[in-house]
Amino acid sequence: MNKELQPKPYQWLAWIATAILLVAATMAAFNMYPYYSYAFTVANGLWVLIGVLWKEKSLIVLNAGLTIIYLAGLFAQ
User: Fold this and answer.
1) Theoretical Cys-Cys bridge with 39: which of 2, 24, 57, 66, CB 3.0 to 4.6 Å?
2) What is the CA radius of gyration of the chain?
C-alpha cells in the first residue's frame, strides 16, 4: 500500500486565507478595531469558499458561522 499524498486543489488559496487569519489575530491582539474584524471576515469568507471547493462541510459550517458573527458585530456598531 504505497499511496502518495496528493495536494488538495486550491492549496494556494488556503495559504492566503491562513495568512490573513494570522494578520487578523495579530491586529486583534493589538486592539486594532474595526480592522481586525474586516480581516477576520475576509479570511473566514475565503475559508467558506475553500470548504465548498474541497467539499468539506465542517469548514463551511465553522467559517460561515464565524463570518456571520463578525458581520453582525460590524453592523451592530
Assistant:
1) 24
2) 15
